[in-house]
Model the fold of this input.
Amino acid sequence: MVYDLIVLGGGPAGYNAAERAAHSGMKVLLAEERALGGVCLNEGCIPTKTLLYSAKILDYAHHGDAYGVTVSGASLDHAKVVDRKDKVVRTLVSGVAAKLKGAGVTVVNGTAVITGKNADGFTVECAKETYTACQLLVCTGSSAAVPPIPGLKESVAAGFAVTNREILDLRVAPKSIAVVGGGVIGLEMASYFNSIGSSVTVIEMLDKIAGPTDAEISSILQKNYAKRGVKFLLGAKVASVVGKPGDGYVEYEKDGKTERVPCELVLVSTGRRARTAGIGLETLGVQLNRGAIVTDACCRTSVPGVWAAGDVNGKSMLAHTAYREGEVAVNNMLGKKDTVDYRAIPSVIYTNPEVGCVGETVASAEKAGLKATEHTISLRYSGRYVAENEGGDGIVKIVLGEHREILGVHMIGSYASEIIYGAAAMVARAERVEDVRRLVFPHPTVCEVIREEMFMI
Done:
């Protein structure tokens, strides 16, 4: 059977693109080897947020005295939290399946491999059947990177070291956990396990946590968690990982010394790699760069008729980027010119407090040859923030270009995840200070400090 489009991968990029294409009249087949929803829905974005919400409720119970609320005997049952996580995932996965069925998408479960091209189009083998399509959209996502650290491979095999996939299925929380990598995944899991009582140590080889996040905001986040008991070892290189479940250590080098962190479990969160091996890209000569598929702003690859979206292109490994890339690819297939604006992709760290960022920092702007200035305001200018945060140290940073256009917005504090989309729109439209001054923000809200800041610049 010949299709208009075959989509390889049923994660955010794949299932969203398949549905959009089918609703536009295309005959679509989607192949997924594990579960619809991909990493985000099954072992990433949604499961982690489910856990973090339970931890937030526990935090509120433990720290309610300042707000006139006293709770005695508050505790968390980790196994029940995991059960609820599984229920949430099942509900959403079934929802994705229903939407694809409703759109008329053919879904095949199995590993899809590109086998070549014939007169009818590109050929793909999946579940011992061969399918053909005029166009291909590769959305095979990414997998956790496991670096070649001595003893790590053996520790993963033994279950002493885990990635984001395995840690979400633990039924018993470890008493102590070493988190290798201070990026988004590592910090969110450090936040959860710290809240539920585990002893947490974050080992990061850079001199700051949270990767490319603004340095001052990273510092505020680190100080908040250090106060809660999380230990941070920055500028530390992991030398080895040795142990079995419940008993082992991470050996690291820092300042010319070698030290050990004893722990019951190790979380490896050192980044993700595009999943391009073993899917037959070489049969078509699709260009790769460091293992990721090379794409342009229209999501086209080096081979006409072959497109790629989501983590597999290595550009912006975020589910919402994947949604947009899938849409852009389909629009261009249908002859509708569309591009992805990577300048205005927001990112969030769902810790407590939350971090939300979009666009340039002063450092990244200068690196790109742009003239930029930054302006900072405390969230305590917001009555809503003061009412809900006892002594909070949240801030918003606005990065402006030479014409007072907004190049970036970076914030730490409550509701950051729900505010940052508005800032992304400002960055995408290159709005100026004067434009934002004319916007009406609801009161009382935390977001209105952005408008307040515009009158201080």
